[in-house]
Amino acid sequence: FGSSDEPIISDAVTRKNLLAAAAILHDTTDVVGFPTETVYGLGGSALSDESVRSIYRAKNRPADNPLIVHVSSLSQLKRKILPEDYEIPEIYTPLLAKFWPGPLTILLPVFPSSPLSLLVTANQPTFAVRIPAHPVARALIALSDTPIAAPSANASTRPSPTLASHVYADLQGRIPMILDGGACDVGVESTVVDGLVSPPMLLRPGGISVEDIRKFGGLAWENVVLAKKTAGKMEAVRTPGMKYRHYSPKAKVVLFVNSGTGARVEEYIIKNGLQNKKCALLKSRFFESSPLIQVERDMGTTGADISRNLFAMLREVDEMGVDVIFVEGIDESNEGLAVMNRLSKAAGEIVDGGL
Ligand code: TXA
Ligand code: MG
């Protein structure tokens, strides 16, 4: 495709599949599922209205929720999207040096001459962009020589996909191709930051912790402001995506916070007469098994493990047809902030043990 940063792919089958996916993105208005280090994405050309419409259509996404643009390199970003004389604001320099490629998304202004489809930005004056770290994602973007708009590749409202089989379960028959790159390493979506406002804002917690943004971002980022967690339907919100029901399995999710060893799960089952229901527990460090709980999964004890396992385990126990999924809440420091942000949205009920 005449890209200047063409990847080297030694495996013939991988190369053939990547070229087929790249051709779909470059030559058609169709979309493909592909792995990134955070979650699987549903990619289409960010330069084409029809391609972006295909994305919204395939996952049934509300059109006022803007998409992240994925590029394979800074040079592709400059060559394909930014005006020739434009310099990326200095406030981003230390963050990009430290975290790109990787799970960090930044906002940049939309220019009058911008080649981006207006549907990508959903009428925001800014667009969101990141360079994914996953080799398959970067090869795909480089080979198609096209900036790729990609939301998470789940059906709207479902948990984000961290395996190719999750994408297949949600979107089979709706998209022509899914590239399988195995399990996503990070497991939660990228962190979205806005350095165009002062003080800068964290719009969505994600794979890069706010502690690391403060630590590595330079002086301005030490005062980064966290966007509020929820917003009412009618409110104008900084991150439109934050107002929708999200990450939800079919079963009811009950999230326990400040609940010690989790004796309150049994108490909850009895109080709500759920003894004859099929209950699952996703536990971490402190919660214990109970004869009243039929399915149990261990999310792990580190923030990185819990992030990696969270969506896959929600889907796995949901597939088993449980009625209720109890989840042990964790501390909101480091990776915990993104985990608890996703869990609060998945939860139909939050039980605060007050401990
Ligand atoms: O890790 C990720 O970010 C994954 C992978 C596929 O890269 N993508 C992802 O996309 O999570 P999505 O569409 O599920 O979430 C995009 C988020 C939404 O919360 C959206 O509102 C916000 O980014 N966003 C996009 N453009 C924005 C803009 N111009 N201003 C404010 N928020 C924006
Ligand atoms: Mg999403």
Automatic annotation (TrEMBL):
Binding site for L-threonine: T38, H70, A150, S190
Enzyme category, top tier: transferase
Record keywords, A-Z: ATP-binding, Cytoplasm, Nucleotide-binding, Nucleotidyltransferase, Transferase, tRNA processing
Catalysed reactions, semicolon-separated: L-threonine + hydrogencarbonate + ATP = L-threonylcarbamoyladenylate + diphosphate + H2O
GO terms, molecular function: ATP binding; double-stranded RNA binding; L-threonylcarbamoyladenylate synthase; single-stranded telomeric DNA binding; tRNA binding
BP term (GO), one: regulation of translational fidelity
The protein's Enzyme Commission number: 2.7.7.87
SUPFAM superfamilies xref list: YrdC/RibB
Binding site residues for ATP: R61, N65, T126, R130, S152, S160, R204, Y247
Occurrences of domain YrdC-like (ranges): 15-208
Gene3D superfamilies noted in UniProt: DHBP synthase, Threonylcarbamoyl-AMP synthase, C-terminal domain
Subcellular location as annotated: Cytoplasm
Main location: cytoplasm
InterPro entries (alphabetical): DHBP_synth_RibB-like_a/b_dom, Sua5-like_dom, Sua5/YwlC_C, Sua5_C, T(6)A37_SUA5, TC-AMP_synthase_SUA5
PROSITE patterns: YRDC
Gene Ontology cellular component list: mitochondrion
Function comment: Required for the formation of a threonylcarbamoyl group on adenosine at position 37 (t(6)A37) in tRNAs that read codons beginning with adenine. Likely catalyzes the conversion of L-threonine, HCO(3)(-)/CO(2) and ATP to give threonylcarbamoyl-AMP (TC-AMP) as the acyladenylate intermediate, with the release of diphosphate. Required for normal translation, by ensuring translation fidelity at the level of codon recognition, appropriate translation initiation selection and maintenance of reading frame. Also involved in telomere replication.
Family note: Belongs to the SUA5 family.
PANTHER family: SUA5 (PTHR17490), THREONYLCARBAMOYL-AMP SYNTHASE (PTHR17490:SF16)
Name assigned to this protein: Threonylcarbamoyl-AMP synthase
Source organism of this protein record: Babjeviella inositovora NRRL Y-12698
